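User: We ran a pulldown and think these components assemble together. Before we commit to crystallization trials, I'd like a predicted model of the whole complex to look at. Sequences follow.
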Amino acid sequence: MSKELSDVFKLSRDWLSVQEVVDSVSSPSCGAISVFIGTTREDEADGRKVVGLEYEAYEPMAQSEFNKLCADIRARWQSVTHICVHHRLGWVKVGETSVVMAISSPHRHDGQQAIQHCISQLKANVPIWKKVIPRSQSDQRDRHIMSMIIDY
Amino acid sequence: MTAQVCVLYFAKSVELAGVKEEKTVAVPTPISSHDLWKLLLQRHPRLCELQDGVVLAVRQEYVPIGDQVLTLGDGDEVAVVPPLSGG
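Assistant: Here's a predicted model for the assembly, 239 residues in total across the polymer chains.
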């Protein structure tokens, strides 16, 4: 009986479902599902609070680079069964999930190693970019004007 | 020889070039990746801000800016790839 190994890569403008990613790698032959979730962190850019990130991708090349990454993972950890990565595109506000990845394997060791490699290689090789969106200056200016009016 | 290639711009390079896509750009072929980059700089001088860290992608394969000689054909896709920041 041949085991069909699947590699799934999805770019989505909608919020990501961790359950969907996990379900797509689960298999009766796998005792372990290793998961990584990347979320949008609150940070500062030029002294202004970050309100979110804007993601874009070179989509067809992101798919082909992902395929190469999966081949690399499978060459290093032969027991890896299914791989699934969902990544956001467009506007992602602070606190939301930007990427979910899951890898299934019969035992946990290979999956845990593979998932670490998967995120570091995705960041190094898959053509996706994020743009930091700070709180807008007009936002801050309006707040300042309002507070002056109230004081007066 | 000349090839009519399609040039795609991403991330910061969109801002610097003022454009996301140029459907037909005439490019001599064969051409080194360094000369191809110079050609793009002539079209959009502000791209020089990306000098450190930019790579090109030709037919969806990464090409560092240097001596590598590229053979381009009509309709080939060339992309300007600023430093990646996915994940």
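The longest strand of chain A covers residues 48-57. That may be worth checking against your pulldown data before setting up trials.

User: Thanks, that helps.
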